[in-house]
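Chapter summary example: a protein plus zinc ion.
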Amino acid sequence: MPWLRVAIILTCLFLSSANAAEFSITPVKDNIFKFSNGTHHAVFVVTDEGIALTDPLSTEGAKWLKQALNERFDKPVRYVIYSHNHPDHVYGGEIFAEPGVTFVAHAWARDDLLATKADTQIPDLVFNDEMQLFLGDTQIVLRYHGPNNGKGSISINFPSQRVVHVVDWIVLGRMPYKNLPGYDIRGMINSTRDVLAMDFDLLVGGHGDIGDKNDVRFYLRYLEQLYAAVLDGMREGKNLKTLQQDIRLDAFRSLKMYEAWLPLNVEGVYNDLIDQSYLHLRPEVPVSER
Ligand SMILES: [Zn+2]
């Protein structure tokens, strides 16, 4: 039945191209590469002493990456650095869990993964403010900037390559995620200002595009203007629906998902101002409804 053989071949071609599209490795700069699993990204650095990688992204992604690293670089993985505690970034760690591999995270990311019985490798090396790792000729600086998204979310900086990696709380070329679930808007602003004070040429996001300092400044301006617009509107007594209708930040309409997610971003800041700052309990702020 030749038609069956053709159908099987076509199916295999389709499946392999689907996988190839889902997982990929792209050079970033010098010995730093980006690993993508769909719209999620991580980075890794290849040195004479081995490989340090950030989030495994998923069990399937980690399996694909492990094989690709073996085939392309033939160096052992020595460090796996978790960006924060969320499963869509740190699941799949167990695929790299072998003797000689150290799992690193902020103390609060480890604490959360442990306490919530996360089904991934639990980190064995933690820090609070800053940690420096050295692998081969490469220095990696991990830094905590305060709360911004999830637990123990950090920046991962490669000073000699002038590349920094941040996941979720800085996204370039795209709007912040929907109604900002689990985000701390003031924390995002403060942490992004902190990152802008660092020395780097390229920022690789866990989502969105790779960009430079100007792209990060553009993103920060968006956050600041969004926050100010929602806060001012609430202090004038506008409810959420009115704010969603009124607020336009058209200087930022080049960001992907601008039309669809702007009302959701407004809702996220509105809820954050109630949850974190208790604006609804201020006698001078007539917040009528959530
Ligand atoms: Zn994410």
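Key point: The CA atoms of residues 157 and 164 lie 4 Å apart.
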